[in-house]
Design brief:
It comes from Imhoffiella purpurea. One of its GO terms (molecular function) is heme binding. This is Cytochrome c domain-containing protein. InterPro entries: Cyt_c-like_dom_sf. Keywords: Signal. By secondary structure, this protein is an all-alpha fold. It has a domain of 64 residues. It has five helices and no strands. α3 crosses α5 and α4 crosses α5. The longest helix has 16 residues.
């Protein structure tokens, strides 16, 4: 009689979970460098006529970009990137 071996199935399931959470493991700077700066360049944050005026608007804009590019970030990733941008470029008060 053949015995069932759940190990390969569990290993595959674990791998899928790890892949799905790969984005969560990236730092805000890594997310920004890998996903944002390629389209925008860093000059977008210092240009005249900035379209965001608060930390909340900045997070909303990061969410728009994330959705537009279909990045499937977690809410925490959006918040981390918005915080990173605010700390390094915008300096809005929370």
């Amino acid at each position: 009689m053949l015995e069932r071996q759940p190990t390969p199935i569990l290993a595959c399931a674990g791998l899928l979970v790890c892949m799905a959470n790969a984005t969560a493991a990236e730092t805000a700077q890594e997310l920004y460098q890998h996903r944002c700066i390629g389209c925008h360049g860093s000059g977008i944050h210092t240009r005249m006529g900035c379209k965001v005026g608060s930390a909340e608007e900045l997070e909303t804009q990061v969410r728009r970009c994330e959705l537009g590019l279909g990045l499937n970030w977690f809410d925490e990733d959006v918040a981390k990137v918005a915080d990173y941008l605010n700390q390094n470029f915008y300096h809005f008060k929370h």
